[in-house]
Specification:
Layout: E1 2-6, H1 11-22, E2 26-31, H2 34-42, E3 46-49, H3 55-63, E4 67-70, H4 80-98, E5 103-110, H5 138-143, E6 150-157, E7 160-162, H6 169-180, E8 183-186, E9 192-197, H7 198-211, E10 216-220, E11 223-226, H8 227-238, E12 242-245, H9 250-254, H10 258-261, H11 270-276, H12 285-290
Parallel strand pairs: 1-2, 1-4, 2-3, 4-5, 5-6, 6-10, 7-9, 8-12
Antiparallel strand pairs: 9-11
GO molecular function, one term: aldehyde dehydrogenase (NAD+) activity
Protein name: NAD-dependent epimerase/dehydratase domain-containing protein
Organism: Gordonia soli NBRC 108243
């Protein structure tokens, strides 16, 4: 298939592009910068210049493709409302372009806060609705198009998609450990995050695009890891002591990520595995920490 990928040069997107190409798909990648365009071209990817605010480019990329994988996000932590609005309008534009085609549209989402009482499942609807909510409520918006001739799949990613060179959430926690000379967890360390290796996440995106029915939610979650376990693994890797930080001091210690590190952000993936035969095979998060995946942080 001809697949249009937003976020094609990003952390998950670049691995997804590689997986798509290895399976014989033709890929067009949205490129915001010259560096991204060069990297995509070197892989044999057709480049479409633009960003999430360029709605004309998004519509053109979708209309000229047989499938769309939307992985881009501004991730502007200083202006989340702008990120949320951009995400909603981008998803609406991509969805509108595919109405009546029965073509697949994979939309990235997350596992955070699906349920207040434990791990969320694929059956749990996203609690985020409307432009002012997390990610602009884009998951719920996209799923409305399943009844309008779009094969929408919501791909919910674990809060940490890890691997060598990861600059995501765990890298901020490692950087705080280096800065303070101690590896910390929040409170009693009993909360947990789901995690998945980057290669497994990419493979799930491609498999869902090829095979998942419209209106499906899939979970890229291979395991759940306790926050204290994460801190202890970081402590071993850096050879620094491990300590607890009070919840009210978490942001001062970790920076913005401190507002999230003490939260339970987990989800199961049983339904995803059964539906698609997805079987994660990559290293675990603790293995990656031990093997130096965050030495750059």
């Amino acid at each position: 298939m001809r697949v249009f990928v937003t976020g094609a040069s990003g952390w998950i997107g670049s691995a997804t592009v590689d997986d798509l190409l290895s399976a014989g798909h033709q890929v067009t990648g949205l490129a915001r910068s010259d560096a991204s365009a060069v990297a995509l071209d070197a892989k044999g990817v057709e480049v479409l210049r633009g960003d999430l605010d360029d709605l004309d480019a998004l519509a053109r990329g979708a209309k000229e493709s047989e499938a769309v994988v939307h992985l881009a996000n501004k991730h502007d932590w200083a202006d989340m409302s702008a990120s949320n609005r951009a995400e909603r309008y981008a998803v609406q534009t991509l969805s509108d372009a595919l109405v009546g085609t029965d073509r697949p549209l994979v939309v990235a989402s997350g596992l955070a806060r699906l349920r207040p009482d434990g791990p969320g499942s694929e059956s749990d609807p996203s609690p985020f609705v409307g432009v002012d909510s997390l990610r602009g409520g884009a998951e719920n918006l996209a799923l409305e198009y399943a009844d309008r001739g779009v094969r929408v799949i919501a791909a919910r990613f674990a809060p940490t998609v890890h691997g060598m060179g990861d600059h995501g959430f765990i890298s901020y926690i490692v950087a705080a450990a280096k800065r303070h000379g101690v590896s910390a967890y929040v409170g009693d360390g009993s909360t947990a995050w789901s995690a998945v290796h980057r290669s497994d996440a990419a493979h799930l995106v491609r498999t869902a695009m090829e095979n998942a029915p419209g209106g499906t939610r899939v979970h890229a979650a291979a395991e759940s890891v306790g926050s204290r376990e994460i801190a202890e693994a970081i402590g071993r890797s850096l050879d620094v002591p491990v300590t607890a930080v009070a919840p009210e001091d978490a942001v001062d210690h970790f920076g913005f990520i401190g507002a999230f590190f003490g939260l339970e952000m987990t989800g199961t993936s049983d339904q995803t595995r059964e539906l698609l035969g997805w079987n994660p095979t990559g290293p675990t998060l603790l293995q990656d920490i031990a093997d130096g995946a965050y030495a750059h942080s």
